[in-house]
Amino acid sequence: MIEFKPQSNRGIILESLGLSLKRLNPVYLAKNPVMFVVFIGGSLTTLILIRDYFSSSLSQEPLWFTGSIAFWLWFTVLFSNAAEAIAEGKGKAHAFSLKALAQTTIARRVHDNGEEEFVPAIQLRRDDKIKILATEFIPADGEIIEGIASIDESAITGESAPVIRESESDMSSVIAGTRVLSNSLLIRITSNPGESFLDQMIHLVLAAKRQKTPNEIALQIFLIGLTLIFLIVCSTLIPFALYAKSNISLTIIVSLLVCLIPTTIGGLVSAIGISGIERALRKNILAMSGKAVETAGDIDVLLLDKTGTITLGNRMPVELIPGENVDVKDLAKALQLSSYADHTPEGRSILEFVVKKYGNFITEREIEKLTFIPFSAETRMSGCDIEGYSIRKGASSAIQKFAERKGLFIPPECTQIAEQIGRKGGTPLAVADSTRVLGIVYLKDIVKPGIRDRFQRLKAMGVHTIMITGDNFFTAQTIAEEAGVDTFLAEATPEHKLDRIRQEQAKGFLVAMTGDGTNDAPALAQADLGIAMASGTPAAKEAANMVDLDSNPTKILEIIEIGKQLLMTRGCLTTFSIASDVAKYFAIIPALFILSIPELDALNIMGLGSPYSAVLSAVIFNALIIVALIPLALKGVKYRPMGAKNLLARSLLIYGVGGILVPFGGIKIIDTILVYIGLV
């Protein structure tokens, strides 16, 4: 693997400034009507400056004033472009670091006759079979069809701990750019060159000049409307100035127009959208579109699978309950022997539990003498035999049949304990040998640590959570109460999931769904926001509009927060932009007409020095505030889980009131500096 050194923030900024100059193009700027008006204003004032320089008799303002206005208008356009370019640059730096993972390697392609052929990875096609040995990188997305291995996915997911991937399981999917640490795998390629998830992530960021989302389109229409209104207002000032015998030039009219239209949000709206997608990528979430990120912020209902999402996914032993006159260590030893050949996740967890809590009862010499019976779905048991002596572990009903065949007495307390465990939502396994029933193992699907707090945060956001499981009602109820979800759907089939999503959507709610299996694909496609796991099946990933490369279903909380943060950032900066126009209005209008209409001095509440200083101060502030807000647009407004009413009140207080007060103070400070240095 070729080492890749990410581009520094300084390099990103310098490159973005160069790109900003290239984008001083009317065709490009026309995509942003607000900035296009500023571009026209900068062009007009530049032409006026050139005219006045060569024909001073026509000059209505000092050259320094016209030149300053032209400079700051171009500065406004330049840094509006810079905000978008920096957002794109940060995303592209992330994309290029990912691209370094997809270096050309030599793959070992396996033909149907078993022969192996070494080919460049770029020649691999969908349905090709390749063999990957330990320490080798996986060259393309695929499905494991043979083998089990430990895989390092840190380059993709950022998670340092290796993960286990194996064939014929929900963890059979592998991603290009990851590395096999142990054993070997036979993989079927599931993507053609340029179609892997790594390629999609790179393409998504490099195509940051993406289509506008519905919310952005609505905001743009609103901004165009405001721009037209102020264009009409400023146009009417010309006949009013003539009537009032006030000497107002085209330069001042242009300055007033630029200050009154919502240039702040107009200059930052693209950067906000692009940085939202980039923040999702930094969380290793592949969003298929900007709309998916925005939808996450509006989600009302969330459907989650129980297994692997709310619970750890594997039923784990929590208690050994020995029968009458049975020592718990005898039960533990029999359990270890009978589980030795049980390669299911439950069997592995039982072995770990016994060794950790009671010690190891099996020596290498004993292993040679024992005949182990693997777990079978038909018998629902596993065990071992030695010289006519048998031990079995399995479902209570299966052990009951085993005991009946051996003519053993089944203690009624064991049956009662098994029923009690079932009512609690657990799974009872019984253990017996050739002479007696030894006891019960209590297995439980363990709720993930901290999951209850996460659901409380979702509830604080106003998101209604529904747990979906194929388990029976009692098991589902127990897990739901322990996890803290709002409601649950037990014994669910793919059809039930689909119907529930449609029911919630019929009520007017936006629904999100997480899943990783092929049976989740219809529901993921139906949901307003479908989130698939990278470790899931290709069908699930194709049906979803987001893929979590960490395969961590509980990350839905971060996904929703990123969406809400994007919407809040856009809303807060829009509020600030419109509110600041009020302050700029009171800064410029009174100063313009104060000489011809002295009564307007009462409105000059800021006490600005002169008409020139008022106009120039407002234009300078208008430009500098965009630069000051670029970090906030890229980072996003901090989101706190609270009701919509409280969020609105908080935003109006901070960005509405602040949008009025900050310009008053900023323009006054700039005006004072201009007067102090004797420029006006």
What distinguishing features does this structure have?
six-stranded antiparallel beta sheet; Calcium-transporting ATPase, cytoplasmic domain N; seven-stranded mixed beta sheet; 53% helix; 3 domains; Rossmann fold
How would you summarize this macromolecular structure in one to three sentences?
With 680 residues, this protein is α+β, with helices and mostly antiparallel strands. The longest helix is centred in the last third of the chain and has 38 residues, at 556-593.
Structural class: alpha+beta
Number of strands: 22
Radius of gyration: 34 Å
Please report which band the strand proportion falls in: under 5%, 5-15%, 15-25%, 25-35%, 35-45% or over 45%. Answer: 15-25%
Low-confidence stretches: 1-7
Tally of helical segments: 24
The N- to C-terminal Cα distance equals 62 Å
Question: What integer is the average pLDDT?
Answer: 81
Globally, the shape reads elongated
The amount of helix comes to 40-55%
Biggest beta-sheet profile: 7 strands, mixed
In total, the number of domains comes to: 3
Largest sheet, order of strands side by side? 10-22-21-20-11-18-19
Describe the protein.
The chain is an alpha+beta fold. The chain has 3 domains: 9-94 and 205-281 and 561-676, no CATH class; 284-310 and 448-560, HAD superfamily/HAD-like (Rossmann fold), CATH 3.40.50; 314-446, 3-Layer(aba) Sandwich (Calcium-transporting ATPase, cytoplasmic domain N), CATH 3.40.1110. The chain contains 24 helices and 22 strands. A hairpin with a 5-residue loop joins strand 1 and strand 2. Helix 3 (33-54) runs antiparallel to helix 8 and helix 8 (250-260) packs parallel to helix 23 (611-635). It is elongated and about 115 Å long. The chain starts with 8 loop residues before the first helix and ends with a helix.
